[in-house]
Amino acid sequence: MNSLTPLLIMIDPWFIAPFRWLSPPAAGYVLGTIVLALYCFILGDISAIGVKYFNREYIRKLQEKMDRNHNLSEKALKMGDKESYKAVNSQALDAFGYSFSLGAAIFCVSIWPMPFALAWVHMRFADAPLELPVTLPLLGNSVHYFASFLLIYIAVRMISAAVLNRFTGYSRLMANLTGRNQ
């Protein structure tokens, strides 16, 4: 039976290094987890950009179809043509559904590195929960590796996305890939 363990052992020296950069164990764990979450975000974002690039024509067509049908439905609504409004709005909703599903699929692509990172964190820290300096309601005074990684990953993802969106080149690239620059 194949296992991820040989791969996790192979990448272990690269992943464990940030955990050893700070001498207090808790600070090293938090820094290492932040770096690991950043690796996951970068690799996932590059993968999502690749998927958007290869599907950019389809994404543009969906966006154009949504925009066109939305504008037509508004026009029909202003003219008081309820039948045309319902027909065009139904088509706009279909296009929105396809676009929403595609967006969900691209999001799933962007988080594919997380299970591998969690497998590695499990291998290393399953028996060593993060000890907190205070007792938190519902958590106690320690946090399991899964909860700590997930919370830090979400924070890293939100901050990284906010920072990247401030760069004009990145924003322009995303607009071009999703067809929202026209």
Automatic annotation (TrEMBL):
Protein name per UniProt: DUF106 domain-containing protein
Organism: Desulforapulum autotrophicum (strain ATCC 43914 / DSM 3382 / VKM B-1955 / HRM2)
Keywords: Membrane, Transmembrane, Transmembrane helix
Transmembrane residue ranges: 26-51, 95-123, 143-164
